Amino acid sequence: MTAEHFTPDEIPRRLLYPIKEAMVLLSIGRSTIYEQLRAGRLRSVTQGASRLIPAAALDEYVALLEKEAQEVRSDEAA
């Protein structure tokens, strides 16, 4: 079974995730993952030819999205 067929609950908690599992955990597509990596909004590491996303980087990315959403709400309320 490939990562695309997993639900986030079926992916075990790890320190590093392959791109396909990060896609499932973040509910975003491959292109978006790579766009965010290029923009520096999501961190990754490489091990040989594999690009891996640290679990902490996933948490940081979600926190960034939450912060940006809060800022938008604050701007709309003003």
Strand content: 5-15%
Give the integer mean of the pLDDT values.
Answer: 91
Low-confidence stretches: none
Through-space gap between termini = 49 Å
Strand order in space, largest sheet: 1-3-2
Categorize the overall geometry.
globular
Q: What can you see in these coordinates?
A:
By secondary structure, the chain is α+β, with helices and mostly antiparallel strands. The chain is built from three helices and three strands, in the order βααββα. It has helices at residues 19-26, 30-39, 55-77, and strands at 16-18, 45-47, 50-54. Strands 1-3-2 form a three-stranded antiparallel beta sheet.
Summarize the structure.
With 78 residues, this protein is α+β, with helices and mostly antiparallel strands.
Map the helices and strands.
Blueprint: E1 16-18, H1 19-26, H2 30-39, E2 45-47, E3 50-54, H3 55-77
Antiparallel strand pairs: 1-3, 2-3
Any key phrases for this structure?
3 helices, globular, alpha+beta, 78 residues, single chain
